[in-house]
Amino acid sequence: MRLLLVQTYLGRREKPVFPLGLAYLAACCREHEVHVLDQNVEKDPWEALRARIASIKPEVIGFSLRNIDTTQFRDPYVYHPAFSRALCLAKENAPEAAIILGGPGFSMFPEQLMKLFPQVDFGIYLEAEEILPSLLKDLKRTPPVRGVYYRTNGAVSFSGAAGLPAFSLLPNPRRDLFDMDSYLVQADTIGIQSKRGCGVRCAYCSYPYLNGGKARSRSPQAVVAELQELVEKYGVRTVMFVDPVFNMPAEHAEEICREILRTGLRVAWSAWFNERYLSEELVRLAVKAGCRDFSFSPDGFCETSLRML
Structure pTM? Predict the structure, then answer.
């Protein structure tokens, strides 16, 4: 099956961010003819989509909505309306192709977005690495596999929640399908994941909702092997760990740092840390292993917590 995976255009020019989620999906759909497109790094996002559809003639088009809005009080901007134009363009140029919508933005408001965009045939709820390949086996099955929003007689239905995949067993993301040079122009545009899920449960954060409240970690050896591939195959010099919190558990973060040092890999990296689990030993170890940016989210709900911070 010819499958086109599209990272949807945000609607304005912003810092390019490598679509790690699509790369994971591409790796999990190897039995199909997989093509990818990140509209955000194209000079003309709309012409690029039209041309790719014309050349590939996809049977299925999967769109990823990464964000709904900026969540910034000083820079309010809503991203998902740009998807409407992409969807119309896709339906015009590939009217017979099945349209699948997913991504973290979709999973935040799945039923609302299915109703807002009636042209979408299926919506994948939460992590799609196992759901999408299963769905593609039989698109006519009703109800479809678990974890899918679909339509019955014009109404939006849900097949039921699916379990989250075992992250450590997933194949490495397929970066070979993308033009990696497009993401090397700025720092912190290429991400790597050592774990998914977060147990902190901050009141404002969507990570536990999207990836579960328990960390699912990869082995430090697998993480560093992927880092080594980024450096040696693609010339990457700076990466960002996109884990919700890199140093939870602290032992896992320390093991990654030690593995980087053991291999002699030279790469600058950044990550999000939690101050409660941060020790001087870990800071020194991380810096020695290449960490150049320790990011924190020092938020408090009440005056007491703000004073403590």
Answer: 0.95
